[in-house]
Structure formats: C-alpha cells, structure tokens
Amino acid sequence: MKKIAILGSTGSIGTQTLEVVRENRDIEVTALAAGSNIGLLEAQIRKFHPVLAAVWDEAKAKELRENVKDLDVKVVSGMDGLIEVAVQQDAEILVTAIVGMIGILPTIEGIKAGKDIALANKETLVTAGHIIMPLAKEYGVSILPVDSEHSAIFQSLQGGQHKALHKILLTASGGPFRGKKREELLNIQVEDALKHPNWEMGRKITIDSSTMVNKGLEVIEAKWLFDVSVDQIQVVVQPQSIIHSMVEYVDGAVIAQLGTPDMKLPIQYALYYPKRRYLPGDRLDFETLSQITFERPDMETFYGLKLAYEAGKTGGSLPTVFNAANERAVAMFLNREIGYLQIPEIIAGCMEMHKVIADPTVEEILQTEQETYEYIKNRW
C-alpha cells in the first residue's frame, strides 16, 4: 500500500486527489488537513479512515472531535496540527494542496521527516524556493509537481537530458478575458472573472488565471523546480488547453505533454511516479481535433505577468511581496472591495515600496508577508 497525507483535502486539488485514491485500491490515506469545511472533512474521514485530521480553527476542531468521536481518529488544530499531519509517521508522500504561504512550514517539516512532496502549493516555491529545493536535496526527497503545467514539463524531461534543456515553454489558456484590452476590463465583476473557459478550479486560482498572475507564479515556481533562469521560461498562450507545456532542447527539438484538461492526471502521476496507471476519463481524439493555436501573451493588458517576471528575476524577498499582495488583492476583489484592474495596481505598488532582502529566512519571508498586508491595509 502507498500511504499518503493531504494538506488541503477539502479544496479543489485535495478532493480530486481523493477521487484518485477512490479509483485505486493500493493507496491509503493516513492524515487529512482542512481549513474550516468540517462537514466535508468529516465525510472524508468516514470514507477514507485516516488516523489523524487537522483543522485550522480550534473551535472548528473541537466541533469535529465531537462529530467523529465514534471513530478512531485524532483531531488537531492550528499550525501545529498542520505540521503533525505533514510528519505523520506512516505517510510516504505529503500532498501539499493547501492554499497560501501557510503551506511553507508544514512542507519544510515534511521534507525533514523524509516525505516525498506532491506539490500543489505554488506559494511554497514562489516565496521559499531557495530554501525548499536545497533542503529536499539534503534530505534525499523528491518534489513532484502537481500543477498541470509543471507536471507536463516534468514529464517532458523524463528522457534524462536536463543538461541539454534550452528553455521551457509554459502554456496558458489566456483565461476568460483573452484578447481583451485594458479599457474592456474596467467594469469586470466577480462573476465574470470566475468563468474559466477550460478548467474547474478554486475561486482564488480562477481569478489568478484571469489576470495571468497565476501564470506569473508558475514562472517563478518553474525556475526553482527545474533549476533554470527566468529568462529561460517563455509563456505561450494555447487557448484550447491541450498542450499543457513543452520543453525545447539545445538541438531545437521540442517535447510536449498533451491531454484533456483533467487535474487527476498530474495528481496520479505524482502519486505513482515513475509508473503510469490507467486513468478513466476523456481522451484526445486527433481525428476530430481541428486545430491547436498559439498566441503571444499580452503583458501590457495583463501586466501582472510582467510583474512576476520582474519579481522572479530580482529574487530574494520580492516574490513574497508579489504573492502576498496578489493574495490580499484577490481576496478584496472577491469581497467586492476593489475593482478588477486594481489587483495588478496593488501588486505593483507593494513591489515598488519594498526593500528587497537578498536571501530571506523563513521568518523574514513571513514577516515580509505581514508587512505587505499591513501596507495594503493602510494604503487601500
């Protein structure tokens, strides 16, 4: 049996991971962690029988303890609870599907406990890649990407020719506003931005996709995952979401991973790597597939992507500011406190005011996050 623990089990990636578990009889779930959705978490506990469950809020944890007192499961809370899930002794793989920089410390502790990391938490590498990747090497654990694009790159590199890699071609759907200009986005509402043309995702990441900030976060993440410079990563808009990403080698050869837009594929690949398992679902039909098209991203209209390149090239603590500012701005937009176009404006303002720390510690990363939130609170 392959044993796994999941941080963020009630979110989009977490629930799809459990769908993969349900379809495979040789995976056992030892621990689950969620934010506040204790109704769904209780259902998951009853279905998958973990020995440990964590909830962020202690009051919710107390309620869950009462609800599952008939089961043999320990319920913990807070950051200590997330870390306890991350280091759960029986788990071989830690799926980090939790959203936000809250995932950094549990991921670090999971690595130190010898767990392979199935990584779906962008913020961990965006803000702390300079800490995470050397630590994984030190402890001899694998960082297995779960994002569809990074999984596609990972799969395309399986020939073992990383030294011959020339550049990464990171694909993007372009989101619901592809082709629109800035003036056409003035009156965008929350409902408009949540209509992604191809993928079913959580609210925050769907907004990030619409602004192309998500693609910017993926650029920074790819830098650390694949040990390349930001200049070696080219974003290509591929509206059909058929090509999930590509790599170009020094001889000009391009290798791509194609498939239907289904997150269960990269999830399952990470859980079983290097083996492939049958996965039920739709397949590409090349007899009816009429075309695959490509476009250059519009970095003037969607200048959050341009800001991400700036943050990735500068490095240090600036990616933390980029991420934290976006996180807070998106939350404000979803709460209808700011307009859509203010999201990149807030990110730019926060990056401009920040004095970069060249090689931040975890404590400095988390402090930078809080300082960015405070600046936004006082400025906007």
TrEMBL record:
Report whether Isomerase shows up as a keyword of the record: yes
Q: One Pfam annotation, family name? A: DXP_redisom_C
Protein keywords? Isomerase, Isoprene biosynthesis, Magnesium, Manganese, Metal-binding, NADP, Oxidoreductase
Pathway, per record: Isoprenoid biosynthesis; isopentenyl diphosphate biosynthesis via DXP pathway; isopentenyl diphosphate from 1-deoxy-D-xylulose 5-phosphate: step 1/6
Where does the chain bind 1-deoxy-D-xylulose 5-phosphate?
122, 148-149, 173, 196, 209, 214-215, 218
Q: Which domain of life is it from?
A: Bacteria
Q: Where is the 1-deoxy-D-xylulose 5-phosphate reductoisomerase C-terminal domain?
A: 143-226
- The reaction(s) this protein catalyses: 2-C-methyl-D-erythritol 4-phosphate + NADP(+) = 1-deoxy-D-xylulose 5-phosphate + NADPH + H(+)
Q: List the Gene Ontology MF annotations in alphabetical order.
A: 1-deoxy-D-xylulose-5-phosphate reductoisomerase activity; isomerase activity; manganese ion binding; NADPH binding
The Gene Ontology biological process terms listed for this entry are: isopentenyl diphosphate biosynthetic process, methylerythritol 4-phosphate pathway involved in terpenoid biosynthetic process
Q: What is its EC number?
A: 1.1.1.267
What exactly does this protein do? Catalyzes the NADPH-dependent rearrangement and reduction of 1-deoxy-D-xylulose-5-phosphate (DXP) to 2-C-methyl-D-erythritol 4-phosphate (MEP).
Q: Which family is this sequence assigned to?
A: Belongs to the DXR family.
Database matches in NCBIfam families: Dxr, PRK12464.1
Record-given protein name:
1-deoxy-D-xylulose 5-phosphate reductoisomerase
Q: Which organism is it from?
A: Mediterraneibacter gnavus (strain CC55_001C)
Q: Which gene carries the instructions for this protein?
A: dxr
